[in-house]
Structure of Glutamyl-Q tRNA(Asp) synthetase:
Amino acid sequence: MSLPAPGAAGYVGRFAPSPTGLLHAGSLVAALASWLDARAHGGRWLVRIEDVDTPRCVPGADREILRQLATCGLLPDGDPIWQSARSNLYQSALDQLWNEGQAYPCACSRKEIDEALAALGVQHERHGERVYPGTCRGGLRGRAARAWRVRTDAAGGTDTLIDWHDRRLGAQRQNVSAEVGDFVLRRADGLWAYQLAVVVDDAAQGVTHVVRGEDLADNTPRQIHLQRLLDLPTPAYLHTPLVLAADGQKLSKQNGAEPLDLADPLAALRRAGESLGLPPLPAQAALADWLAAAVAAWRRLHP
């Protein structure tokens, strides 16, 4: 049984790991899902190293992640790119938003934002969204800029409602103005925010389909908002089930998830396939044969 070759179809998918640590069981699920979806649709699969948060990146983790993917037979259809080398693209996007009146500098610290919200009777919950109240929309009033934000109010000052469809979760809606507020594009430490970088890079790489973990579904309306402001295409989205740790929390590097044990890569792939709802596949197959069977199974699940 052989793998289908990457086709000339218009489909372009991607896997975008952050090198703050090595791949773990949860990130392999996301990598496998995005690879399977690309192969099932005869498309191309790219890898992007999302290393804009440089202080949190682990030296050498990027190359080790690429080695982990190769060990599992998940090979990209082109050279990987690193976000840390693409600052000029993000600056161009920010300049466009600024020139069009859709972005502005912000002087507020987190403490000041919390105080402003408290004055409005809004209590910020720990780990909850800190909805920016728009303090600096009208100007800095002589204060020094710390960060840059994008406006989320629609024409006439109305709220921005984003309706979108997820291939697994179905119809989704978010009031970005009320639930998020004007969010950061460039941080106070000078680093680029994830939301801007991912939107710019998805468009620059021609990504048509985004397959990623369900924990990122809440980010999608923000990214669609930026896509519309920058006149960029909106990909199709599919958010996969989360892999949970024994305590019921999302399995993540922040929660101490162990790096993948790839002494038996096929066993790791089988576990990832189970998390994605794939039916039992040949247990004794060679790696390439198992991947080919997984592509066929994915095609039936997600036509």
About this structure: The longest strand covers residues 44-49. The two ends are 21 Å apart (CA to CA).
